[in-house]
Structure formats: C-alpha cells, structure tokens
Amino acid sequence: MLENILKELKTKASEDRKRGNKFFGIDIENSLGVPVPDIRSLAKKIGKNHLLALDLWKTGIHEARILATMVDEPDKVTEKQIESWVKDLNSWDICDHFCGNMVDKTKFAWKKPFEWSKRKEEYVKRAAFSLIAYLAVHQKKVPDKEFFKFFPLIKKESTDERNFVKKAVNWALREIGKRSLYLNKETIELAEEIGEKDSKSARWIASNALRELKSEQVRRRLK
User: Fold this and answer.
1) What does pTM read for this prediction?
2) What's the confidence (pLDDT) of residue 52?
3) How many domains, the chain?
4) Which pLDDT belongs to residue 47?
5) Same structural domain for residues 141 and 194?
6) What is the pLDDT of residue 26?
7) 83 and 116, same structural domain?
8) 2 plus 80 within the same structural domain
9) Complete DSSP assignment for the chain
10) CATH code for position 155
11) Shared domain check, 124 and 67
12) Which residues of the chain have pLDDT under 50?
C-alpha cells in the first residue's frame, strides 16, 4: 500500500511547484513538489490509517509526511509519537499540518504548548504557537477562559526574533482574539503590552495583530 501511495504522489509531482515552495520558505529537501489539495484529495481516498501514517512519516518525504498528519488517527497517537515527530520538523508547512491535522485532536494538545514553547528548536517552538492557533480555531466549544493560560507564553516568546517563531506567536494571538468580543478586548490589551517591549519582533507582532484585531471586519463578525 505504501509503495502505491508514493507512486501516486510522484505522479502529481512538479518541479515548478517545488521551486515555488522554496520561494515561500518551505524546505524542499526530500520534496516532490505536490500541491496540498492533491495530498488532501489522496488522504480522503485513503481514509484514516494509523499504521500507514507511521510508515509515511518514516519515508522522510515532505509530502508523505504531510499526508501522514492527514490520515493518522488521533485517538491512537501516543505522546511518544508526537515527541518523536516534533523533533523531525524541518519546515513551517509540515509543522502547521502536524499541529492542525493531528496534534490538536489528541488528548495531549492542551499541554504541549507549555512544553514546546520552552524548547530552543525553531520548529518545535513554532509548533507550540501553531497549536495554540489551531486550538483557538477548531475547539469552538471550549470556554474562552481556557485561552487565558496561553497569554503568558505569547507575551514571553514575543521577543523571539526568528521569522517562523514570531509569525506563529502573532498567529496565535490573532486567532484567540477572533474567538469572541471578550477575547478580542483582552488580546488587544495583551498586544499593546507586547508592543511596549524593547524588541523589534515584539513590536512587529503587536502592530500586525492590532491591525487585524481592531479592524471593522473582525468587529462586525464578532458582533
């Protein structure tokens, strides 16, 4: 089954797509250049399959790993697996698929941001905030108050100057602030505090987040 799936991925491969991915900061080492919609379509055809996901990840192929996050079964995912995979992350897109397709649906999702935000590796730290962003978007029934626990992490790591970390911190802040009018008000206050830090990264995160959180479009949707 694995060999057939890899063959199918290769039929969708494109050198132009691969070069385009590089332009957007995606690590193209071990990449085939397959568009995400094609990977998603293949995932729907395959269905959920935990053992296959493990095998796909082991190939080290960029698109196979994205596919692995789509077909894995969150209730069968172990914490050991999550910790093994997070250490393998080498590109922002795999990081985000890992968090948004799989980790945020596991029973470990709410504790991982606290653990990963303390780590030094760029993509592990990005995963902490990508995961927060996806929890804010996907976990609609969770009370707003649960997201306050992430505020100290966002404020503390807002000074990380690394591009893929600061963008994820910004993303987490914005997604929390778009959940409700209440959280919108609280995240605006948090962003203003972050903007006062003596850090280029923090000031960028604050100004970018405030522009969206204060926008009429967001306010109208929340009302």
Assistant:
1) 0.95
2) 97
3) 2
4) 97
5) yes
6) 83
7) no
8) yes
9) -HHHHHHHHHHT--HHHHHHHHHTT---TT-----HHHHHHHHHHH---HHHHHHHHHT--HHHHHHHHHHS-GGG--HHHHHHHHHH--SHHHHHHIIIIIGGGSTTTTTHHHHHTT--SHHHHHHHHHHHHHHHHH-TTS-GGGGGGGHHHHHHHTT---HHHHHHHHHHHHHHHTS-HHHHHHHHHHHHHHHTSS-HHHHHHHHHHHHHHTSHHHHHHH-
10) 1.25.10.10
11) no
12) none
